[in-house]
Design a protein that fits this description.
This protein is mainly beta and 171 residues long. It has a single domain, classed as Beta Barrel (Lipocalin). Helices cover 12% and strands 34% of the residues. The protein has 2 helices and 10 strands. The strands form 2 sheets. The protein has an 8-stranded antiparallel β-barrel. Strands 8-9 form a two-stranded antiparallel ribbon. A hairpin with a 3-residue loop joins β2 and β3. The radius of gyration is 18 Å and the shape is globular.
Length: 171
């Protein structure tokens, strides 16, 4: 009887998509930005009074700033594509409206932000980079290229989650 119950459990799990709306071949499927992400998210390092990272997300825009810069933000962008891997993780592809500091060296217009562990008060947000190329820009020229490049299974090429601190909601 235990063998039959175990077999049935495995059969049920095999039919589940534990990552949400992602194609079988790891294709991103377009969805909507979770309402819970809209707001201002910051990471304040222990012992500091000022945030070292800040994301401001609206329904169709995102602004990112890394502390200590001359500008209050490092880039601004329009949200062009969202793929939700589960109710608390996914991908946001942006088109720059105000380019990051390195844009003079890189004419690509699209980038992405992965999110995971989304709750009412915290989330991990990570801008994509090219980990294999010395933490360089992973930006793309077209939206189509970004949708293909930044997928759930390729996340490890672009994010080192071991260094991503949870941001907390301030608004």
């Amino acid at each position: 009887m235990r063998v039959l119950a175990g077999f049935l459990l495995l059969l049920l799990l095999a039919g589940c998509d534990l990552y949400g709306k992602v194609g079988i071949d790891d294709t991103n499927i377009e969805g909507a930005l979770p309402e819970l992400l809209v707001g201002e998210w910051v990471y304040i390092p222990p012992g500091s009074a000022l945030p070292s990272e800040k994301y401001i997300m609206e329904e169709d825009t995102i602004q990112y700033g890394y502390g200590g810069g001359e500008s209050p933000y490092d880039f601004k962008g329009s949200i062009r594509f969202v793929s939700n891997y589960s109710k608390n993780s996914g991908l946001i592809i942006i088109e720059y409206t105000e380019s990051p500091y390195y844009q003079g060296h890189n004419a690509n217009s699209f980038s992405a932000v992965y999110y995971r562990n989304l709750s009412n008060n915290t989330v991990q947000l990570a801008n994509v980079i090219d980990l294999a190329d010395g933490y360089s820009s992973a930006d793309t020229t077209t939206l189509e290229e970004a949708v293909e490049k930044f997928t759930r299974l390729k996340m490890g090429n672009h994010v080192d989650w071991s260094v991503v601190q949870p941001q907390r909601r301030v608004r």
